[in-house]
Amino acid sequence: MSASTDRQNRSLARSLWVFAAGSFAFGFALVPLYSVLCDVTGYGDRTKLAQASDFAETAPTNRTVTVEFVSASPAYGDWEFRPELGNLKVHPGRLYEAKFYARNLRSTEVTAQAIPSIAPLNAVQYFHKTECFCFTPQHFDAREGRDMTVRFIVDPKLPSNIDRVTLAYSMFDAPQKVAAQSAPGPRS
Asked: Are strands 110-119 and 164-173 parallel, antiparallel or unpaired?
């Protein structure tokens, strides 16, 4: 091997090590970056979830808003996941309840997490979930299915140009660390 080729190989190896170290550091930086993103946007913020659960019913208005329910699970997951109703007409200020059905299609137990999203984006601050299966990871035994509840209030301050709000959930397998923390204790 020539000295030039040897130098190029060492330079390439150094570059690859720097790239690998940078990728590793970026992985660790994602957690604080996610926290900053949540603080800025309000998504995934546990303090906002606590505030939402404190939201109280007010006198309902005559106004009607349609809330659509949508569900999704990733193509690689083995889930049956769907809303009980496709939509519900609600009066802002009043507490409502909707149910979603989830079933683990695997022959092994699994812990899952439902991730919510609300559209249009400017309706997020006016849609308050007081109780939701998305607040905590959900443990499912093999082939177990069950109804899961979300209770919500649409704030009467919802802008008048919004007459339809979509509440969508995506069901994902929870990471092993989360699954271990939320798994039920020994059964008797």
From this structure: antiparallel
pLDDT at 120: 94
Burial 52-88 (b: 16+ CB within 10 A, else e): beeeeeeeeeeeebebebebbbeeebebebbbeeebb
Residues 6+ apart with CB under 8 A from 132: 116, 149, 150, 151, 152
For residues 45-61, average pLDDT: 57
CB 128 within 8 A of CB 150: no
Q: Which residue has the higher pLDDT, 76 or 15?
A: 15
The predicted model gives 141-163 an average pLDDT of 94
Tokens 């005559």, located at residue: 62
Whether residue 95 contacts residue 149, with contact meaning beta carbons closer than 8 Å, is answered with no
- Tokens linked to 5: 């080729």
- Residue 80 bridge partners (DSSP): 103
Cα 73 from Cα 174, distance rounded (Å): 13
State how far the Cα of 186 lies from the Cα of 188, in Å rounded to an integer: 7
Tokens of 106: 């695997």
What region does 143 belong to: left with phi over 0, alpha with psi -120 to 50, or beta? left
Q: Whole-model pTM?
A: 0.63
